């Protein structure tokens, strides 16, 4: 059954590849797309390594940042190893080049089995780690035949779980091609096991091992001594909730900053604010700002967390499963979320127990959060002690795994 699937799947892939490649060349030559775009098609810089390599595949910026601490330990303890990083986005590639010194970085040749095999053979790849749950069938199938394959920080959103469950005959076989699967939470462990029937291990979330904080001094100076509310990683339905009740808290803040999860929604948010007669600015297009500021750029979230006194993190009022609260918590900011935080269940429970996270179900909960004192930084001490213990345990386990595999 799986062989039939791959035959049909690759027939579609080859057809799409051949039909779209001339257009890709044209768009790159016309400078509409960057030259990096051709890496998706397998046109990669020439690399050839005689020494052993470890390959990490990450979806985008968040996953890149999550492995920085691990890679630093690898380079310290196994300096002879070459590190390869692939990602699905150009912003992810730029982040990897900037933050991970000495790594070979390029965009993943999407489902190109020939290119994947060439990467492994030419670079003497011993191990491939797929971060979170980037289940590209050709990547998994090809790599499993050429090197050891591990899934780390494995997770499934409820939406993805339903999709995988409906086609479990396929995804079960893909999961079983991994030499090991490590889930980021017990919740994710149980979901993956229910589909794969494989033994999944709970490792913890390696995203919480990264301490790289990138701050933009110009933005900090612009908002110095301003009282800011940040609505971060918001989804459709969440912004309208806060805007509906804005009269109850608008006077508490100099600026209300909205950073949607998807920048493609900028015009939608502009229309939402315009319909409510609320003066607003788009961050990259203004030098002075109105009360509401819509963020339309990547890579500045650490700075916006830093300048904000109160922070709501989205994907949690609507049932998306929540987004990463650690990036704000590590700056010692008490944050608020909605009740739907299954994607980050473990850290949310820890933060709740330490009273540095507030869960809001309605506008009264949110107003109560805005009124709490945010100066008791001692509340963060037990949180960071516990998290540091969890991080060291996760990293040490992966380092032992790498040591065992490269010595074979």
Low-confidence stretches: none
CATH superfamily of the largest domain: 3-Deoxy-D-manno-octulosonic-acid transferase, N-terminal domain
Q: What's the CATH topology label of the largest domain?
A: Rossmann fold
Question: How many helices?
Answer: 17
List the helices and strands and how they pair.
Layout: H1 2-29, E1 53-58, H2 61-66, H3 68-77, E2 82-87, H4 90-99, E3 104-107, H5 113-122, E4 125-131, H6 137-146, E5 148-154, H7 158-166, H8 168-175, E6 180-183, H9 186-196, E7 201-202, H10 217-222, E8 228-234, H11 238-244, E9 255-260, H12 266-275, E10 280-282, E11 292-294, H13 301-307, E12 310-313, H14 326-329, E13 335-337, H15 345-353, E14 357-359, H16 363-371, H17 380-406
Parallel strand pairs: 1-2, 1-4, 2-3, 4-5, 5-6, 6-7, 8-9, 8-12, 9-11, 10-11, 12-13, 13-14
Helix pairs in contact: 3-17, 5-6, 7-8
């Amino acid at each position: 059954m799986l062989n039939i699937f791959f035959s049909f799947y690759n027939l579609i892939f080859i057809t799409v590849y051949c039909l779209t490649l001339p257009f890709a060349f044209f768009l790159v030559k016309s400078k509409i797309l960057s030259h990096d775009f051709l890496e998706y098609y397998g046109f990669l810089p020439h690399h050839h390594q005689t020494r052993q390599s470890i390959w990490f595949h990450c979806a985008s910026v968040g996953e890149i940042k999550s492995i920085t601490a691990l890679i630093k330990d690898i380079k310290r303890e196994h300096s002879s190893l070459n590190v390869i990083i692939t990602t699905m986005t150009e912003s992810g590639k730029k982040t990897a080049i900037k933050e991970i010194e000495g790594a070979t970085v390029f965009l993943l040749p999407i489902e190109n089995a020939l290119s994947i095999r060439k990467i492994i053979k030419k670079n003497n790849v011993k191990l491939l780690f797929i971060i979170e749950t980037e289940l590209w069938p050709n990547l998994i199938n090809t790599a499993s035949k050429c090197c050891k394959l591990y899934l780390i920080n494995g997770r499934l959103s409820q939406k993805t779980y339903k999709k995988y469950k409906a086609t479990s005959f396929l995804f079960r076989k893909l999961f079983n091609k991994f030499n090991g699967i490590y889930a980021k939470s017990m919740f994710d462990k149980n979901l993956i096991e229910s589909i794969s029937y494989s033994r999944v291990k709970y490792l913890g979330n390696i995203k919480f091992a990264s301490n790289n904080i990138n701050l933009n001094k110009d933005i900090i100076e612009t908002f110095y001594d301003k009282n800011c509310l940040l609505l971060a990683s918001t989804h459709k339905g969440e912004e309208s909730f806060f805007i509906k009740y804005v009269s109850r808290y608008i006077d508490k803040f100099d600026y209300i900053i909205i950073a949607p999860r998807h920048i493609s929604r900028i015009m939608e948010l502009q229309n939402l604010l315009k319909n409510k007669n609320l003066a607003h600015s788009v961050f990259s297009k203004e030098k002075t700002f109105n009360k509401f500021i819509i963020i339309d750029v990547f890579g500045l979230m650490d700075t916006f967390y830093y300048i904000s006194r109160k922070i709501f993190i989205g994907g949690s009022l609507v049932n998306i499963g929540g987004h990463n609260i650690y990036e704000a918590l590590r700056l010692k900011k008490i944050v608020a979320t909605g009740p739907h935080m299954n994607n980050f269940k473990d850290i949310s429970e820890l933060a709740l127990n330490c009273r540095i996270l507030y869960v809001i179900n309605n506008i009264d909960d949110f107003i109560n959060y805005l009124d709490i004192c945010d100066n008791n930084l001692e509340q963060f001490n037990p949180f960071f002690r516990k998290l540091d213990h969890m991080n060291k345990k996760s990293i040490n386990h992966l380092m032992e795994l790498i040591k065992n595999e490269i010595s074979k």
